[in-house]
Amino acid sequence: MHAIGATGWLSASIVFVLLAIALNYRHRPKNSYILLLLYSLPFMAASIESLGILTIDQIKYACEAIIVALFGYLLLKKKKSVRLIGYIYIALFIVVVIISTVINRTSIIKCLLFLRITLIPVLFFWYVVNDFNINDFISMDMLVNALLISQIPASIVKFIMIGTAEPYIGTISILGGSTTLIVALLGVTIATYEYLVKRKAKYIFIFLGYVAFVSIGEKRAGIVLIPAVSVFIYFLIMSKIKLAIILKRLPIYLLIVAVSIYAIGSIIPSLNPDRKVGGKFDLNYFTNWVNRYLFPSYPIKGSYYHGRGQAPIGFYNLMKSSEESNILFGYGPGELVTSRYLDYGLPWVKSSEDLMLYKFDVGYGGRTGFIWLGLQLGLFGSLILIMFYLRLFVEIFKLYKKRLYPSKSLVCALVFFTIFFIDYFTYSKTLFERHAVIIPFLSYIAWAYKEIQVNNYAPFSHTEKGK
Questions:
Q1: Is 323 helix (H, G, I), strand (E, B) or coil?
Q2: Residue 44 pLDDT > 70, yes or no?
């Protein structure tokens, strides 16, 4: 099934990303071709690999090299004026990494690979928040929105060619199905904001396009998270508006949410009793499926802690029986990192989930960011890094509370943070792995943080002057 046009329809789908780039060619942050490349490459990584040009991993390394180079250039250009927001948390995080490395006698290669995964996103945030002005962020917003939308027609082509399937996430990736949900949630956030503010029907269709994207990718969590995120955005915006307007707009919005729930439950075969695309929507069947998914009653791949509901229990039991040093500092940075530079002597070990199963008897559900970090750096490491992001969230939320009307950057940042926390504690570590998610997420966080530094910013406006 996967052999059908894996280098045909997937390669051809790159045209949707190229079209998005062409239509937004003039909207390059800082008028930079390097930044245009950085934002665009992750969105066509799977198509580029299918064309035999570069692998997805090579594209990832190229993006990381660009980020490090941009941050280095920033330090040379601005020197003492560069503000490293939250650097104390990052410094403490690095100290924990060093202590854990020494205690567990972890190899330097594992340590460096781990730091690459966890800290390069921070360097990107520091670069953007220091070097972008308001006009750059507006250009970024238009480009990212177009790149996210480009995944909708790519997924429709996938549906026509192979039907619903978790592999082939638009033009972004071949494997890693969690990316489907996170990309869709980012897109839903932007589309919902635009609809509630501008009241244009096209944003309803874009919203429903992301619902289709999730359904075609068979991401069942979308039936809960898309409505939840949508309601949260509605609350963030409407809490600043008169009650009469809220009541007037509420019915059509609730209708959109209801259609989304029904569509996802009907399109994804495993969520309906007919086990087919377009099957009957049955809420009781869905709730029973969720319970079996979170808490399977039998070992899977030899692990008794396989489901997402069971993995935290397995993590707790492991830590409870571990040495105090392992509880606080984990089992070593990089212990759950796979790389061609590391040989575990087991041909079936191809992912961090495989390593988690092999080393700690924690199965698929252990792929959440919190457990992934906790096993490697203990409670100190996993909590310190989340505190860095939590500090940004709190400062942005304070500005949101002061504003009479919430701007797009503030609403998107608060919702993106909520998605990040849900993903980190309950779902996956996608926001450490996929640059098609990392770069948009941190760009909007930096945009919102920029508002804290710019006093005369006009909400809802797309014509602000740069600093």
A1: coil
A2: yes
Amino acid 442: pLDDT: 96
d(CA 277, CA 263): 10
C-alpha radius of gyration, the chain, whole number: 22
Residues spanned by the domain of 137: 55-144+175-292+371-453
Sign of CA dihedral 347, 350, 355, 357: negative
| Local confidence band at 288 (pLDDT 50, 70, 90 cut-offs) | low
Determine the residue type at 171. T
In angstroms, the CA 131 to CA 205 distance is: 35
DSSP-derived 3-state class of residue 284: helix
Query: Model's pTM, two decimal places?
Result: 0.85
Backbone torsions φ then ψ of 453, nearest 5 degrees: -90, -15
- Is residue 348 classed exposed, middle or buried when 0-12, 13-18 and 19+ CB atoms within 10 A define those classes? exposed
Sign of the Cα pseudo-torsion (24, 30, 31, 36, in order): negative
Q: Is residue 208 part of a domain?
A: yes
Note the pLDDT tens digit of each residue in 404-448.
778 899 999 999 999 999 888 888 888 888 899 999 999 999 999
Strand partners, 344: none
Residue 243 forms part of a structural domain = yes
Residue 250 lies in a domain: yes
Q: Of 283, 223, 232, 277, give the one whose Cα is nearest residue 253.
A: 232
Query: Is 204 a domain residue?
Result: yes
What is the distance between the alpha carbons of residues 14 and 284, in angstroms, rounded to a whole number?
40
> How far is residue 228's CA from residue 257's CA, in Å, rounded to a whole number?
9
**Confidence (pLDDT) at 296:** 57
Residue written as tokens 């619903």? 164
Low-confidence winner among 88-97, 272-281, 387-396 (lowest mean pLDDT): 272-281
